[in-house]
Amino acid sequence: MERSSDPVNNFQDHALASFFSSDPRPTFIVRPTRSSLSEYQPFDLIYYNNALKIHHDYLQELLTSTRSSGRSRHDAHTASFISFVNKSRQGDFYHYRGILWLATQVQQEWSIFTGTVSHMRHNGEPIVPTVQSPPRQDVAHQSNNNESHPSTSGSSTKGRDIDVPMTGSSSKLALRSSPFVDWFESVDWSGTLVGPIDSWPLELRQAVTLSLSNPDPGAVYWGPERVIIYNEPFTTLIKDLHPFAMGTSAKISFGAFWSMFEDICRQVETGGQAVKHNNGAVQLDRSGFLEEAYFNYTYMPIRDGSGRICGMFHQAVETTSAVVSERQLSALLRLGEMTAQKADLGEFWQATLRSLEDNTVCIPFAAIYLAERYYSAENDLSESFDGVANTGSIYRLEGTSGSHEGLASLPSHIDLSTDAGMGAAFKAAWTQPLLTPIKARTVFEPLLAETDHGHVVVCPLKLSYDKHATCLIIGLDPLRPYDRGYREFLDLIVRQIEDGATSVVLLEQERRRMKQTVESIEQEKQRLSKALEHQMREAKESEFRFLQFAKQAPVGVYIISSDGEVVFHNEAYLKLMALSPGGRLSRHCWRDNIHPDDITNVDMQWQALINGKPRADFELRVLRHNAKPDDPDGITYLSTTCFTQLDTGGHTKSVTGISMDISVHRAHERVVAERLANALEAKRAQENFMDMVSHEMRNPLNAILQCAEEVSQLMEPYGTESQESMPPARTIASLDAVGTILYCGYHQKQIIDDVLTISKLDSQLLSLAPSPTRPIQIAERAVNMYASEIRSSNMTVFVKQAEGQNEEQCIMIDPGRVLQILINLVGNAVKFLKARPTRELGVTVSLSHERPLEGPVKFVSSGRQVAALNPSEEWGSGEIVYVHFTITDTGPGLTQEETNSLFGRFKQANPKTYAQYGGSGLGLFISRELAELHGGEIGLVSELGTGSTFSFYVRGRADKTQTVHASNDGAAASSPKMMKRRTSSSGFKRNEMISPRNSPSDDKKSAKRATVLIVEDNQVNQLVLNRQLKRHSFDTLTADNGEVALSILHRSTWWHDPVPDPVHISIILCDLEMPVMDGWTFVRRVRECQDKGELESEIKMVAVTGNARSEQVRAARDAGFDDIVCKPYSIATLVPLIHEMISGGSDEDGDGDGDGDGDEGGEGKRES
């Protein structure tokens, strides 16, 4: 700030000194002259600020030289300006050398002149009459667009003489009268935070006077409450907040958006200097709709007499035209960059749409329709360039840009010959000027349904001489008026698209013309580049901000010079490239940690970029610190994208790129590939499995069919009409055939059981159902199942428990799963012992609290982790007990190679095993899975020619609540499930090897008055079961469903009301799945009748079902059935069960109520 010599000492400490020193406008202050003196006399200069000294030094010279100069030294224009300075009054204006000067008087002591740079044309005369030309006339001046700029919008202001002292004693300001000023002075300021005008401090009055005299939007924020006092142009920015915001706290009135401006105010208060904020965005209603506008805001401090900042002066200058022009220019450059090197027309259109997608502010949405003839590969488009318009009628939607919801409603094809909507719009665009705005919501109503202010423009694009090649539909920016600038921008867009598309078509049709078109496009790009050099220099600041952002980016950002030196990088780049932070990076250091297998490709990509390739996308692997190339855990997978930056000569200056860590993505790909391989392997194994199952099922099925045919042929001559009896030889042959059928049926059932078990194991649906069980009884039961084969082969068998252990101790284990393992192992032993000279089989059971150790027997594990057996309601809280079973036989034995192949799925000792002994190769695999499921293991030791020992153990818990005690040996032997043990060499006695069975005479005697009600909807099953039971001396009743069975119960001896000729029913056999009323409903109705007392007592009911799942068995028991029989079943098993239930017997083994699955040898139900 410069000051004059003597008077400045009086002004130095004044509050205005600080204000004007930071004001970017040229300002000077003189002492008013007395009216009696000449108007051209030298004036008394008190002060001028830095803005005047630096930018308008000629004024400094004029002002300082005028102190002693007269009019004769200056031209007429300068002399008039001096006269204006000497004789001006409050609010006078004068235009001098491109600056509009505003005069403000302060207490008749100072005259303050503030200049605003103006681009208006002038003729050297004052904008308003000076003091020599009273009365004052309307104040007006012409702007560069020939529109008036009055001090009040829409009207001129009548001048008047104002001589109001600014001492705080007046309720009015020294301002020229206008509607806004009149309204301003009429405001009841006493009700505001600043009080009435006559109480305002001098600094506030001066600042408000300056603001109201300012032709640009401006406001004063006073005090810590930011009380806002604004001028008339400022009302265009705050819109509906005027007039309510006047005199209120800006923190409250502008609370929705004040936070940013409050930060600026605080910055001014903290720094004590003016702050400028460029290109602030607002939306203004200028033409009946909201338009975007941009302003440069300047905030200058207002200081009081002590130098303290007591307020802010806010001025706004509109920069909308510059911002919009820069944005549109960027859109044009982006379009040129993305379409410059496209050689295919389809790629060109997609690049065009992507470019428009990146500039949705300028063009919110767009759609391209291309003539269908351009999709024909055989079509010679040379006719399109002969100067004759090609008017093909079919146009196809090439693509759209933008996220407007209405784009989905655009048709994929338009036939100009039939479409009266968009087709007619296309035709109108061809006959009208190049750009045709469509404002009516008729044709494009679906496209504009969601838009408050929607306009589209249909732009016909010509390719060379083909004027009807393409139509471009462009959606206009709803925040911009469709004015001349917008039309010129769209014209440039259309021209650039036309040029690019034409070059592509010419490339496809005529190489020579393509070269000329490309050169033309390049020339146009060069012209635009030169025109943008100035803007590019200004963009460096934006580039700096980008670099600051790049430093914090989570991806690697880098710039490498053409000689390989990293000139910029962020921390993420160093981490991804395994480079040490700190210090200067050496040239080509980015190559140091690249995987050796990728370094060649990286060098090729780098060389291509140096040679001028604009972009490169590739992947590479980087070795982490001290990692080896073959260590997958030490490799980082990167995806990098590079762009070249060219110098003025067209050579590569540097390469800018980003690198992203895609290691997780690559890991996912490996997992997916591994899973795919596993799935293919599982599919192959499943196919093999189905082939094996089909083969195994067809073999016994073939034997069943042939034996059934044989029996039919043997018995057919001796049917009911023949009086001749069947010869013994035929009878024996028939019995052999029937025996074969039974054997094959059992074999098929075993295959089905194994398949179901495998399925449940694969699906992890197999679960354990522990119950208190004596392990020795499970071993006895497994051996008893093969009693007939043992007797027929004269084998010596023993079942024993380890010495010193209590046979009566109950363990919480799943008896069904353990029995299934024992059945597989004992069955294999019996099968292999039949042909041996020495046939001995032994089963030993032992208990321990420690996990059995490997001895001679080597356990074969699948590697599955065994789950912990925690105390629970199901398992109890007893001690952990390991139940160990050992099966020893004197079979043929196995070699070491054969031993290693066991326990695999579909694996047998050798190929001859199946041919000699049969089997599917699933038994030992299932046994291992079940043992491990039960927390145990299985293994074997074998010697060729001597025999084998299979051993397995399961984990359980000691039962604290139940211990089974046999009353005496006789009682145990009488149980249908019990079997005595012998350890002598003679083996089991015949009457001790099998469960006691009643002779036919005994059956007749015990079932003489037993009546069985058969509830079965399948007539074949009903007939067969009825006939079998009658053969065993039972009386039977039949019912096709539960409803018929209920009606029979109502006529039975069980019903509480007497009925004539009641029917006696001993037990009910009921199928579960039936029409009308199924077994589930039937049993619930029967039990409800019992609970109500409608039945005399509880009747025994047995469910017959083909579903052997444990859930189904459990549900049947819960529904009210006493027992369950699973199909297929043997009559030899069913008859003892009926006798037992009629007589009120119960299982003494303690395992008859287990929940094991019947298809896996479980004990939850009865089966063959």
From TrEMBL:
What superkingdom does the record give?
Eukaryota
Supply the Pfam families for this chain: HATPase_c (PF02518), HisKA (PF00512), PAS-like (PF26131), PAS_4 (PF08448), Response_reg (PF00072)
* InterPro entries recorded: CheY-like_superfamily, HATPase_C_sf, HATPase_dom, His_kinase_dom, HisK_dim/P_dom, HisK_dim/P_sf, PAS, PAS-like
What is one cellular component GO term in this UniProt entry?
Answer: plasma membrane
Compositional bias (Polar residues) at which positions? Answer: 130-157
Per UniProt, the enzyme's principal EC class comes to transferase
Keywords from the UniProt entry: Coiled coil, Kinase, Phosphoprotein, Transferase
Domain Histidine kinase intervals = 692-958
Which PROSITE patterns does the entry link to?
HIS_KIN, PAS, RESPONSE_REGULATORY
Q: Which residues form the PAS domain?
A: 542-613
Under the GO molecular function aspect, what terms does this record hold? histidine phosphotransfer kinase activity; phosphorelay sensor kinase activity
Can you say what this protein is called? Answer: histidine kinase
Q: Which SUPFAM superfamilies match?
A: ATPase domain of HSP90 chaperone/DNA topoisomerase II/histidine kinase, CheY-like, Homodimeric domain of signal transducing histidine kinase, PYP-like sensor domain (PAS domain)
Catalysed reaction, written as an equation: ATP + protein L-histidine = ADP + protein N-phospho-L-histidine
